[in-house]
Design brief:
With 243 residues, the protein is α+β, with helices and mostly antiparallel strands. 32% of the residues lie in helices and 31% in strands. Strands 1, 2, 3, 4, 5, 11, 12, 13 and 14 form a nine-stranded mixed β-sheet that branches. It has a three-stranded antiparallel β-sheet with strand order 6-7-8, with helices on one face.
Length: 243
């Protein structure tokens, strides 16, 4: 478990334990028939001490994470992605439960084909493309990928055939390289990533200028004709042009 995940989990444990203690004490005080001043003071102390300790731990853990984080504090980054195998779209498994996410609290997807980086990033490698596949229950390596879907796991391994031709995993990134903070006038370029497992999304909340990442298993090629819907719409509007 990563450090930020461990601290978050332990903080939640402290809060839950403290809440349980407080509720138990309150119930005891309600059902107690008589309580002198000394008993009332003990009850107050029993409620106050766990509350203060949990508060101090939470505050200390938050400050510590912000201090050691490479991002210097919480971030909110997004990047869109699409996965293809032999020209066919591969859809990541849909999220379930109250959290409505696949992945971790810091690094996840909400069934929207979007990488969400939300929180304190201790090490940027913790929010790399390879790590994303790992936290959603799959894998992405230079030799293939594994993607959990609603109908099972979609696997691809280099050397398998696509339309009769040997195929391999390739990753392409559309990135805004000029005027990222302007609504119009943004310029982008498409790059074929070499060490794609370690790729970290650009630090933007909106997409674009956040990245569009295409993971494609097909015959080797220098570029892709696939593109994320957000980028396609921005190009059609004239907000985004090639650099």
């Amino acid at each position: 478990m990563q450090l930020d995940q461990y601290i978050a989990a332990s903080t939640l444990d402290y809060i839950l334990i403290t809440s349980a203690i407080i509720i138990a004490i309150i119930l005891v005080s309600i059902f107690a028939k008589k309580a002198d001043d000394r008993a009332k003071a003990l009850l107050f102390t029993a409620i106050a001490v766990p509350t203060i300790l949990a508060t101090l731990y939470t505050a200390g853990a938050t400050i510590y994470l912000n201090t050691i984080a490479e991002t210097g504090g919480p971030v909110h980054w997004h990047a869109d992605f699409e996965i293809y195998k032999c020209g066919q779209s591969v859809d990541l498994v849909d999220p379930t439960g109250l959290s409505n996410r696949v992945g971790t609290p810091v690094f996840h997807e909400h069934g929207d084909n979007r990488l969400h980086v939300e929180g304190v990033v201790v090490k940027k490698e913790d929010v790399s493309l390879g790590k994303f596949f790992e936290v959603v229950g799959g894998s992405l390596t230079p030799s293939g990928f594994s993607v959990p879907t609603n109908s099972g796991t979609a696997n691809a391994a280099n050397g398998e055939l696509c339309n009769g031709r040997p195929a391999k995993v390739q990753v392409f990134a559309y990135r805004v390289v000029e005027n990222p903070f302007q609504r119009t006038g943004m310029k982008h370029e498409q790059t074929k990533l070499t060490e794609f497992e370690g790729y970290v999304p650009s630090p933007y909340s909106a997409v674009p200028p956040g990245d569009c990442i295409i993971i494609e298993f097909d015959a080797e090629k220098p570029s892709t004709d696939k593109i994320c819907e957000t980028y396609r719409i921005a190009i059609e509007r004239g907000d985004l042009t090639e650099a």
